[in-house]
Structures are given as C-alpha cells and as structure tokens.
Design goal:
The strands form two sheets. A seven-stranded mixed β-sheet has the order 5-4-3-6-7-9-8. It has helices at 5-13, 38-47, 54-57, 66-74, 94-100, 114-126, 145-149, 168-178, 198-202, and strands at residues 18-25, 28-35, 84-88, 106-111, 133-137, 153-159, 179-190, 206-219, 222-235. The chain is globular. It has nine helices and nine strands. With 238 residues, it is an alpha/beta fold. It has a single domain (61-235), classed as Vaccinia Virus protein VP39 (Rossmann fold, 3-Layer(aba) Sandwich), CATH 3.40.50.
Length: 238
C-alpha cells in the first residue's frame, strides 16, 4: 500500500526542513518541494565525511534544474497524447510532472536515489498526478530481473544524466530493450557538461540527432544564458 502525502512528508521532514513552492511553466502551475536547510544538510554530510563524490553524494536532485524545464516543454512536441513515458534519473520528478500535463497516458518516474524518490512521490501526490505517474527505483548499473519486467515505452526521457560517462552504455542497453520500435529517447544536458562520445556509442543501437536550445534564467537581478544540448535517439531502419 502506497503512503499518503502526510506520511511521506513526515519521513522527509525527519531529515529536511521543506515547503512547497509555486512553479509556473507556460500555462502549467505546479507546487514542488524546496529544502530550506540545504546548507545545514550539506554541512552534516561533510562533517560525517559522507561526500566522496559530490556529483553522487550531494542532494543535487533537490534543485530545480533549468534543463528539466527545457526537456519537459520539449516533450509536448512529440504527440504525447495517449503515449507512455519513462523518466530516468527523475530527481524530484519535475520532467514527469510537466509531461503529465501534456497528455501521456502513463509515466514511470525512476531514480536510483531513495531520498529523491520520496520527494518525487510527494510532489506527484501534492499536484494530484498520482493517477498518471508511478514512482520506482531503477539502478541502470545493476541489472536486476525487474529490468526485464518493465514494459516497452513510447518515450524515454532524462535531464542532466549524460554528463556521467559510466551511465552511457547502461542507458543505451536499457533503451534498446525498452523503447518501442517507433519510439524516441530524448536527453537534455547543459552544454558545459556535454560528453562528446555519447553519440558514437549510441550509433551502435540508434540513429542519433543532436541540437541546441538556448534559454535565459534570472536569479535576482542577474540574467544568465544557458545552452542545452538535446540528443534524440530513434531506432535504426532495418
């Protein structure tokens, strides 16, 4: 039996001080969990010498990354109505939350990090999207029998995941096994973290297309321009 929102928030608040913050994307209005005591939490991790690899050990999943907004908005262009989707490395589930508003019939929201999945579940329940989105743990680097039990998806999507080279081959093998024949896999990565060898690896399994999307973000009075690389995979013609 799945936990209700109150039970999830109780578990989350045992570690973090959080509140729901409004987030608007075009005509979509969401409420997403934000951590108030992030620095305190990081200081505790450092004091316990728990940060061996900052990219993996720090709660980067708790941040609203602009790349997730870029990818979420991009998904509406691929005729999502009635299709199924899998999000890899979902973090707080932002891509899935946005995509659910564009007509996907079902979305599987996955991550390897259990804390991230708690946040994703709470966000999904709070936004009333639990009838369209399910949450589950998925570790691409440790194949297990439940990988084979997962269905075939029309769309596989991931934001800010390709910057980890060790995930390239597991991602491609998983997509090759679980992407529908006419399906697409879409990845969004900040160009500053782009790994140039991914398209070469992908060519073994897929036709690979690349493009860029530029956006402006504002933090107080500071306006920054970011360029995101979009990688789209589709199966090679037989």
């Amino acid at each position: 039996m799945h936990e209700d929102e109150a039970a999830l928030l109780e578990r989350i608040r045992a570690q973090f001080t959080v509140h729901f913050e409004p987030l608007a994307i075009d005509d979509i209005s969401l409420q997403v969990l934000a951590i108030d005591n992030m620095q305190e939490h990081i200081d505790k991790l450092l004091a316990r010498h728990s940060v061996k690899n900052p990219l993996r050990d720090l709660p980067l999943w708790a941040k609203v990354w602009p790349g997730s907004l870029v990818l979420g908005r991009l998904l509406r262009k691929y005729e999502p109505n009635g299709k199924t989707m899998l999000e890899l490395g979902c973090g707080m589930g932002l891509v899935s939350l946005i995509a659910a508003h564009y007509g996907f019939s079902h979305i599987d929201c996955t991550d390897v990090n259990e804390q991230a999945l708690l946040f994703a579940r709470a966000n999904i329940l709070h936004n009333g999207l639990d009838d369209r989105i399910t949450v589950s743990q998925l570790d691409l680097q440790v194949p297990t029998p439940n990988h084979a039990d997962r269905p075939i998806y029309d769309i596989i999507a991931a934001s800010e995941l390709l910057y980890l080279p060790e995930l390239h081959t597991p991602i491609l093998k998983f997509a090759a096994a679980h992407l529908a024949p006419s399906g697409l896999a879409l990845f969004c990565t900040d160009r500053a973290r782009r790994q140039k060898d991914f398209p070469k690896k992908a060519a073994k399994y897929f036709n690979c297309q690349e493009g860029n999307i530029g956006i402006k973000t504002k933090d107080g009075d500071t306006v920054e321009r970011h360029v995101y690389g979009i990688t789209i995979l589709k199966r090679n013609a037989s």
